[in-house]
Write a structure and sequence with these properties.
The chain has three domains: 1-118, Four Helix Bundle (Hemerythrin (Met), subunit A); 123-179; 208-294, Winged helix-like DNA-binding domain superfamily/Winged helix DNA-binding domain (Arc Repressor Mutant, subunit A), CATH 1.10.10. It has a two-stranded antiparallel ribbon. The longest helix is centred in the C-terminal third of the chain and has 23 residues, at 208-230. Helix 4 (55-63) crosses helix 6, helix 7 packs across helix 8 and helix 11 packs across helix 13. The chain starts with 6 loop residues before the first helix and ends with a helix. By secondary structure, the protein is mostly helical. The protein is built from 14 helices and two strands, in the order αααααααααββααααα.
C-alpha cells in the first residue's frame, strides 16, 4: 500500500523541493573549486554550496522509488545522506563531475533504505538479491509486453534469472514477495471483524495439563534412573556418569581406561554391561523402555 503524507507534510515536502530546484547549477570550474576548498581546507561553506546545488539530483532519484510505498520525505533524506557521503569521499583530482560520482552514492543510500523498510522481513541480503528486487518489475513488464497473456511463465523466469545471474527459484520467491505486502495478525477477518488472523494460528505448545504431567513423569523417571544407578558397581556407575550423564563433555574410553587403570576395551565391556543392567532395572517399571520417551 502506498504511503500518503498528511497535508502539512506534503506542503513541507513541496517547499523543500521548490527550494532545491531554485538552487543555481554549478559550472564545472566552480564545482571543482568548491570540492577542492572542502577537501583541502575543510571549508564548510564550500561544502554547503556544493551539496545544496545537487539536492535536485537527490529529489529526482527519490521520486523513482516512490512506487515502493515509502514516504517521499524519508526517501529524500536518505538520498541526502548518500549525497553527503559522496561529498566526503569525492576526489576532485580525478576530473570527474561531482554529479556523476554522487549519483551512485545517492541511489545506494535510497536502495538500502527501501530494503530495510519495505517489509518487516529482510528482502535482499546479497548483491544478486538486491539487483533482483529492484529490477524484477521492469524486466517482468518488458517480457509481459511481448506476450499475449499476463504473468511470467517458466521461460520468462529463466530469462530474468539469466539476465541477473540468479537462480530461477530466487526469481519465483521474489515474485511472490513482491506480489503481497505485510499484513497485521491483528487485522480483522470478514466484515464483522469479530475474529482476527492471529486467532487462526495453532499453538503447538503443551497445555497446562500436559506440562504438569510431563513434570511428574520426569520426576518419576529420574527416581527410576537413580535406583538403577544404585544397583551398579562403583566402577560401572563412574563409567556411565562420565559417558552418558555429563552435559558439558563426554570422556573417551581411552581417558577412562587410564583413570581406572584398565584397557580401553575393558571400559567398553563394562559400559555395555552397565547399560544392560540399567535397561533391566528400568524395565521392571514399564512394559517397554521406549515408554520412557513417549511423554516428552
Amino acid at each position: 500500500m502506498a504511503h500518503i503524507d498528511d497535508p502539512s507534510t506534503q506542503r513541507a515536502n513541496l517547499k523543500y523541493i521548490r527550494q532545491a530546484m531554485d538552487e543555481p547549477m554549478l559550472e564545472r570550474n566552480h564545482e571543482l573549486s568548491l570540492a577542492k576548498r572542502w577537501r583541502e581546507k575543510n571549508d564548510e561553506k564550500a561544502l554547503h554550496e556544493l551539496v545544496s546545488s545537487y539536492t535536485r539530483l537527490v529529489i529526482a532519484m527519490a521520486t523513482k522509488f516512490r512506487h515502493y510505498g515509502l514516504p517521499l520525505g524519508d526517501l529524500i533524506q536518505e538520498g541526502n545522506i548518500g549525497l553527503m557521503q559522496a561529498a566526503a569521499r569525492f576526489d576532485p583530482n580525478r576530473e570527474v563531475r561531482f554529479s556523476t560520482y554522487a549519483t551512485w552514492w545517492i541511489r545506494s543510500s535510497i536502495q538500502d533504505y527501501v530494503l530495510r523498510n519495505w517489509s518487516i522481513v529482510r528482502t535482499g541480503t546479497t548483491a544478486a538479491q538486491k539487483s533482483l528486487f529492484f529490477n524484477l518489475r521492469r524486466l517482468r513488464a518488458q517480457i509481459e509486453g511481448k506476450q499475449e497473456h499476463e504473468g511470467l511463465g517458466d521461460k520468462g523466469r529463466q530469462k530474468i534469472a539469466n539476465d541477473l545471474k540468479v537462480n530461477v527459484r530466487d526469481v519465483r520467491d521474489m515474485e511472490m514477495r513482491l506480489s503481497g505486502g505485510d499484513h497485521s495478525l491483528n487485522a480483522p477477518i470478514g466484515e464483522n471483524g469479530d475474529d482476527d488472523w492471529q486467532g487462526l494460528i495453532a499453538d503447538d505448545r503443551p497445555n497446562p495439563e500436559q506440562v504438569v504431567i510431563g513434570m511428574k513423569d520426569s520426576h518419576t523417571r529420574s527416581a527410576w534412573l537413580a535406583q538403577a544407578l544404585g544397583e551398579l558397581s562403583d566402577r560401572e556407575r563412574r563409567i556411565i556418569e562420565h559417558r552418558h550423564l555429563e552435559a558439558d563433555s563426554v570422556v573417551t574410553l581411552e581417558d577412562l581406561g587410564r583413570e581406572l587403570g584398565i584397557s580401553k576395551e575393558r571400559v567398553r565391556q563394562l559400559e555395555a554391561r552397565a547399560m544392560d543392567k540399567l535397561k533391566a532395572s528400568i524395565s521392571r517399571h514399564v512394559d517397554s523402555p521406549m515408554q520412557l520417551f513417549m511423554a516428552e
